[in-house]
Amino acid sequence: MATLERVKQSLRSGESESGTDSDIIPADAGVEDVCDDEIETVEAILTDVRPEKRGVIPALQQVQDEYGYLPKFAFELIARHCEKSLADIYSTASFYSQFHLEPRGDYSVRVCTGTACHVAGADEVSEELQDELGVGLDEVTDDGSFTIEHVRCVGACGLAPVVTVDDDVHGPIEPDDAETIIEEYNESGD
Amino acid sequence: MSKATQSEAETGVTLEIDGQEVQARDGQTILEAAKEADIDIPTLCEHANLSNVGACRMCLVEVDGERNETACTTAAQDGMEISVETDELWTHRRTMLEMMFADQNHYCMYCEMEGDCELEDMFNRAGLDSSRVPLEYPDIEPDASNEYITMDLDRCISCGRCVRTCDEIVGNGTLNFGNRGRETTIVVDDDVSLGESSCVSCGSCVQACPTGALYSPLSAYKGRERNCEVETTTCSECSVGCELDVYTNSGRIVKIEGNEDGPADGQLCEMGRFELLADGRERLVEPQVDGETVSLEDAIDRASATLAGANGVNAFASDRLPTETLEAFSEALAAYDASLEIPGAERATLESEVLSALEAELDVETADLLVDSLHDLEDSDTLVVYDTGIVESHPVVASYVRRAANGETTLVTIDDGEDRLERFADHSIELAAPAATVTEQVTDVFEGGTEALADGTVEDIVDVSLQLSGDATFVLGPAVEDAETMVDIFGLAATSDNEVLSLGPGRNSAVANVPTDDLETDADVAYLLAADDRDDDLDRSIELAREADTAIVHATRASALTEIADVVIPALDWFEREGTIVDADGEDRAIERVLDPRGEIDSDRELLADLQEVAA
Fold first, then answer.
1. Rounded CA gap, B210 and B214, in Å?
2. Euclidean distance between CA atoms B475 and B472, whole angstroms
3. Looking at CA atoms only, how far is residue B318 from chain A in angstroms?
C-alpha cells in the first residue's frame, strides 16, 4: 500500500544522515529533522521573497514548486522569514486548494468530476485509474510518479469524461483507456 | 482606539435603538453605545479587550429600516435608527444558531460548560430546543495533551475568541483557523497537539471560550461558574501582581480567572491560573514536634525555647508572603538575634543602592527611571530585554513584550542562554561577554557615535544604540544580579532619557524594605517560614534545614522540607492569607482572604507575634 510505503520511506530517510534515494521528505519532518542542504534550499528560495506578510503566498508557491508539496519544516522557515506565526502560515496554506500538505507524484492525474464528466462516467474512469496505479485518491504511487485527484469542471465538457495529466488533456476516454494513458507517462519518464 | 471598521462616527452622536434615544461618543460602535445604555444586543464572538470581527452574526441589527449590519463592527452615526428585537432579525439569528449547533457535536448534558455556556444561553434566548438542520456528527478527537488545557473542538463554534486572545492579548499566535471554508477548525501551530506546540499554557483562551471547546481539567465538573462565589485578590507567584478572580463553592476553589477589568486585560499565566490550583500536596493542619502531634502552644513554646537556646539562628521566609507577614517575621526573629534571608532581597537592595547612587551622580529622579505601568511597554519604540527567562518567571510581562514586538516596537533581546523570545526579536544578542560589557559598548556607541566602537563590537550593538534615541524601555530579568550591569543599564537609561522595568526574583517587592543579612555559617538552628513554597523554591529551605542541628519549619503543605523538620508549625495557604503585596511597579496590592483557614491557625502574623512575645 502506498501509505505504508511512504511511512517506510520516511523511516528510511530518518535513519540516514546523508539523505536517501527517495526525493520525498516526510511531510511531518521539522527543521531539526532535515539535513542542512534542505534548509539551505528553502532559505535560498526565500531570499527573493519579501520578508513580510505579503511574502507568505509567494513563499509557499515557490517552496511547493521545489518540492511538489509543502513539507512541514518549510513552514517554520517561512514563518521566521515573513515574521508571522507558524499558525498563520499553516492557516494560509490549508485554505488554498493549490497548496498540498502531503507529498505528490511527479505527474498529477486529475479526473474531472464536473456535471458532464460525472454523467459520462467519471467515477468508473477514476476507479480504473486508481486500480491501475494501486493508489487511492490524493496518494502517491510507490515510485513517486503519480497522484490522482478529483477536480471540478476543467472546461472541456465536449470531451467528457476528461482526464488531465499535468497540462495534457485526454478525452473522451473509457475506463479501459486508463492503462494506455498511464503507460504513456511511465515510458516518457524512463 | 475605535473598533469600528466603517466610517468614523462624529463626535457626540445621537441615535435611536429600539425606540430609545442613545448618546454615543466619537468612534464608538453601535454595540458599544448600546452596552453603555444598558441595551442588550446578543453577541457570541465579541469579548472584552478583543477586536471585533462580526463573525457570529448574532449582533445583526436593522439600520434605518433598510439594511442589516453587525452592531460590533458598525460605527454609530448621528440619526441612525436601530432595531434589535425584530422577528426578522431573530429568524436570522435562529438560523445561524441552528447551523452552529448542527455543525459540531453539542451535547449539552455531557459538557463541562453546561449552565455557563454562552451558546446554550443564546439557544434558550432564541427560543430554540432543536435544530432543523441535520446534525453532521463530525468525528473529532479531544486534545488532552496539555496538562492544564483540554481542547475539545466538538463544542467549537469557530467564533475565534481564542485565536484573537492568543494573538492580541498573549501575543503568542499559537492558535489560528485552519482549513478555512466548510471544514474550518481551530489549529495549533502547524496542526500539532497543544502539548507539543508553542503554547505557553496561560489559559487565556480557556477564559475567552464561550462554550466548552476549551476548558481546564482542573476545574471541570466542579460546579457551575454562575453558582460560585467570587473573590478578587492579587497573585503572589511573581512581582507583576495580576488580579485573580477566584471562584469558590462548598468551601473549595473551582477555578481562577484573570480580572478582565484589571490592569492585565484578564491575563494570567500558567502559575496563577493553574499551578495554584494543582498543588496536590497534603495540607498540614496540626503542629508537630519530633514527629508527634502537639498543641499549638506547645509547638510555639518548643520553637521559642530552641531559638532562645541557640548559638546562632538562620531564618528564611518565602517571598510569596504579604508584606505584613514578612515584617512580623523580621521582628519576631530579630528578637532571637537571627540572621534573615528572603529570596530576591539581595537584588532589590542592590537595586535601590544603584538607584540612589545614580540619583546623586546623574541628577535623575528614581521615579522617572522606572516604568509606571506595563502598558508603557507597548508604547515604546524599542524594548531591550535583558534575560529572556522572564518568559517563565514573569510570563505576563512576556505577553506585553510579544504584543509590542508584534506591533511597531523593535525588540532587542540579550541573553547568555537560550533566547526564549527569539521568534519575536528584531535583534537577538547572545552574550559571550558579561552583560556589563555589552551595555558598556552600547553606551560608548550611544555617546560617542560609531567612532567609539571597540574591537569586537557586534553590528547588533550599533543597531541597539541607534534605537535608543527614540522612546526605549529596558526590561531587566531576574538573572541580572551584578552591580556593574545594573549601574550600566540604569545609567544608560538615565543618559538616554529612557525607562527601566526591573523584574527581580523577589515576588513581593517589599523584600527591599525588610532588613536582611548574610546568613551565619555555623548556626545550629534554622527557622524556615516556607509557607506554600513548592518545587525548586524549597531547595534553599531544605539546604538550610540540613545545615542546622534543629529545623523549625513553618509551612502550609507536607514536603521534603517538613520531613526533615524537628518542629512543624502549620502556615496559611495562599487563599487564606490577607494583607498587601508590593508589585514590580512599586504599588501596594491587596491580598484578600478567599476561603477561611482549614486549620486552627487564623493568622501567620499573630503566630509570629506570639513567638516574639515569648522571647521578650
1. 9
2. 10
3. 38
Contact at 8 Å (CB) between B20 and B41?
Answer: no
Q: Which residue of B has its CA nearest to A71?
A: B190
Q: Are residues B243 and B310 in the same domain?
A: no
* Cα(A37)–Cα(B336) distance, integer angstroms: 68
For residues B32 and B36, what is the distance between their CA atoms, to the nearest angstrom? 6
What is the pLDDT, as a whole number, of residue A5? Answer: 53
**Cβ of B138 under 8 Å from any chain A Cβ?**
no
B179 touches chain A (CB under 8 A): yes
Name the residue range of residue B64's domain. 12-94
Is-contact B358 B374, C-beta < 8 A? Answer: no
Angle, helices A122-133/A178-189, rounded to nearest 10 degrees: 40
Tell me if A75 and B190 make a contact (CB, 8 A cut-off): yes
Note the pLDDT of residue B294: 95
Residue B189 sits at the chain A interface (C-beta within 8 Å): yes
Does B267 share its domain with B315?
no
Residue in B179, B180, B188 closest to A87 by CB: B188
B168 touches chain A (CB under 8 A): no
- The model's pTM is 0.88
**At B455, which CATH number?**
3.40.228.10
Nine-digit cell at B116? 455557563
Q: Is the ipTM of this complex over 0.85?
A: yes
d(C-alpha B235, C-alpha B242), whole Å: 5
